[in-house]
Amino acid sequence: MRSLRTGLSLASLATGVAMLGALLFTAPAAHAADPPLRDLADAKSKVIGTAVTGSKLTGTYGEIAGREFNSLTPGNAMKWGSVEPTRGSFNWAEADQIVDFAEAHGQQVRGHTLVWHSQNPGWLTNGTWTSAQLSQLLNDHIALEVGRYKGRLAAWDVVNEPFNEDGTYRQTLWYNGLGVDYIAQALTAARAADPAARLYINDYNVEGVNAKSTALYNLVRSLQERGVPIDGVGLQAHLIVGQVPSSVQQNIQRFADLGLDVAITELDIRMQLPADSAKLTQQAADYRAVMNACVAVARCTGVTVWGFTDSDSWIPDTFPGQGAATPYDENYAPKPAYHAIAESLGGGGSRPTDGCTATYSVGSQWNTGFTGQVRIACSGAALSSWKVGWTFGAGQQITQAWNASCTQSGAAVTCSNASYNGTVPDGGSVTFGFNGSWSGSNPVPTITLG
Ligand code: XIL
């Protein structure tokens, strides 16, 4: 990441500057800065969480993870295959790192996950076990892992994905070896190892009222009747743009009515690539719908997104051709979905939304360099600070900026106001400029304000 100092520069204006006709791109509806999502969520006593990858928790990724979220879920680091790749030989490094990061940033941790059919170590899945041995393995694993983080985790996804789509039990190592009681056994072991952690069963395609969520409902009711420890259900919410079930709030409510907590644990909303503004607008509406359903039910503890940036999402690998499923794009620019989350958490009430625009233009251009200008103008709205971003499409590089503080990382540029020009009054505008280098072509990028 290069930092470019603010300040007027007359350097590098080569002779023979050619004035070009104004090349303009105006950003659509603009958004001024909201408070971080976690502040909005805290004010509503809700969780806004994200899955994270431990090795990425530095730089911009770490800054956003720490600033915007009040809860972290390790995306993979606590899975059995990660922590015990070889029998009896443990690797806690990434899990420890995430828990330490969370504590340093005043965040909760959601443990994920103890008992699952997937991402288990080869020695476990390839072994031949009697039910007594399986039972011992399960108890020991839970005692060790839950015990290691005792008192430090808010919740555990104890059992993950136990159901088929039709509501029958998934045939897994655990179900086949121990019967349905593997679920009660796992919950009981987890409670013994950390009485303070909230214990969940977590699954996907259980967001709306359907056969699978009804099977989950019947399971948790029977566990409660038997006195098995169960505190909540996790609705993963790996959704598709335009396909949020209409019964999400009703479904959350029926679990809440059992005296259970409900958490949206893995929200992402994927689309066929490439993304375009119509899909991103629909995605924002979909994020808002899920958020609103949780905000509306007191016992819905909150929402965790399964990765906050499109550069750290499992979707493109798992669903070829699909992606753009998270609230930030690959360059860490917040998408419309981010603003929808903020608004659902009560942000945006006093901020101007529509009414300010950012316009990028190339002023002059010569053999290797050019001068660019960005104008931020408001009408019917005003800003007290501003930030714009764009991604260069042809390898352009900013060399110097004035009247703004700009950073460029790869192709991604972010510029924010200088100390003296954050205010854009209603009916007024602020302009800043920069010099850049180019070769081949110098296309005008799409600029976003907010
Ligand atoms: C995914 C991870 O995000 C990927 O990195 C990994 O390759 C596969 O698993 N349901 C879950 C999560 O409960 O653990 C999964 O996470 C996504 C689906």
TrEMBL record:
Active-site residues from the entry: 266
Domain GH10: 34-344
Example GO molecular function: endo-1,4-beta-xylanase activity
Catalytic reactions of this protein: Endohydrolysis of (1->4)-beta-D-xylosidic linkages in xylans
Top-level taxonomy: Bacteria, Bacillati, Actinomycetota, Actinomycetes, Kitasatosporales
UniProt keywords, alphabetically: Carbohydrate metabolism, Glycosidase, Hydrolase, Polysaccharide degradation, Signal, Xylan degradation
Highest taxon, organism lineage: Bacteria
Secretion signal span: 1-32
GO biological process annotation, one example: xylan catabolic process
EC number(s) on file: 3.2.1.8
Positions of the CBM2 domain: 349-450
Pfam families: CBM_2, Glyco_hydro_10
Stated name of the protein: Beta-xylanase
Entry similarity comment: Belongs to the glycosyl hydrolase 10 (cellulase F) family.
Record organism: Streptomyces dysideae
Membrane spanning stretches: none
